[in-house]
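Example 9 (inverse folding). The structure is encoded as follows.
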């Protein structure tokens, strides 16, 4: 066991985890990742890790890593019997919808989402009654019940592309639940909220409170800095940055550019991952922690693998079938 632990410490060190983002004794962390990786092989489990997770989870135990779109797509292709979703509950629901025969778990009962909780299936039915015949385009940060009432799902990575295609066939669209993202997309598409795009009142607790005035401060302090922000941020902040997109878009922007420094306006986990992925590039911190994402730890993953939570992620068959149609529509239009 000592030899295996030594090798695990070397592996994690080679990934850069010894330099940052690991709480407590590094040997203890290595012991946890070693045991988790052993158990997932034994149980034929795969671990999905969203980019907002901590680096010890992403790099130490993650098999499938990415944003909501990539993880949903990757889940369709896995041969594992068990999917452990290190993300939030709506992501695990999506994985279950796409993999009805597999067992899906989230290693925390607190891994919710303010956007998902902002709207219900009944709310969507009322919206459709108010705007008969108008298609419902729904951000993936929603429950299975809401997805079941929708015509097409989108992620921050493909929302603009899919909405453009929807507007080729429809004069109006209902976009839910993120109000800020809806306003940002309306600007990009030349649409008017309340006229040809109808929005809901949901917001993300991570992205709604960023201060656009701070962007000006950072620009003065760090000449040549490039500011990138997630599409869930308020439009006043989006107007102050150089690039808006999803986390996958932001990572590709950093990879394919060479600024003096990057300001990443989103959840803190993304910035930590970027620092590890691009150690020679400079990053300035302007982030907020997501309490839902950060409720998942190596300890909670290990506990789940040792004794799976009886509250397995399930979706009623009728809701899953309808929700899958809207998710499949996303894959079709995003291709």
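The amino acid assigned to each position is listed next.
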């Amino acid at each position: 066991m000592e030899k295996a632990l030594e090798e695990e410490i070397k592996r994690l060190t080679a990934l850069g985890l010894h330099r940052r983002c690991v709480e407590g004794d590094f040997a203890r962390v290595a012991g946890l990742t070693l045991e988790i990786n052993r158990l997932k092989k034994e149980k034929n489990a795969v671990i999905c890790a969203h980019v907002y997770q901590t680096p010890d989870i992403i790099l130490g135990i993650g098999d499938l890593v990415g944003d909501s779109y990539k993880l949903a797509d990757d889940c369709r292709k896995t041969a594992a019997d068990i999917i452990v979703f290190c993300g939030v509950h709506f992501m695990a629901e999506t994985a279950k919808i796409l993999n009805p025969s597999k067992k899906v778990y989230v290693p925390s009962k607190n891994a919710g989402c303010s956007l998902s909780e902002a709207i219900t299936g009944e709310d969507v039915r009322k919206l459709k009654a108010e705007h008969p015949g108008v298609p419902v385009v729904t951000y993936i940060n929603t429950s299975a019940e809401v997805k079941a009432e929708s015509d097409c799902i989108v992620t921050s990575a493909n929302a603009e592309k899919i909405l453009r295609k929807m507007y080729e066939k429809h004069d109006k669209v209902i976009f839910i639940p993120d109000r800020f993202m809806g306003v940002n997309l309306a600007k990009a598409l030349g649409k008017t909220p309340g006229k040809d795009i109808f929005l809901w009142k949901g917001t993300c607790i991570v992205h709604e409170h960023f201060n656009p005035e701070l962007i000006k401060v950072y620009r003065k302090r760090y000449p040549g800095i490039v500011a990138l922000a997630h599409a869930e941020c308020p439009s006043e902040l989006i107007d102050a940055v150089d690039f808006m997109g999803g986390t996958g878009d932001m990572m590709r922007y950093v990879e394919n550019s060479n600024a003096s420094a990057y300001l990443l306006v989103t959840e803190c986990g993304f910035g930590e991952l970027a620092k590890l992925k691009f150690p020679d590039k400079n990053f300035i911190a302007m982030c907020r922690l997501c309490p839902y994402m950060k409720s998942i730890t190596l300890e909670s993953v290990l506990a789940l693998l040792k004794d799976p939570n009886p509250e397995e992620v399930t979706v009623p068959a009728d809701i899953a079938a309808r929700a899958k149609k809207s998710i499949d529509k996303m894959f079709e239009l995003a291709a």
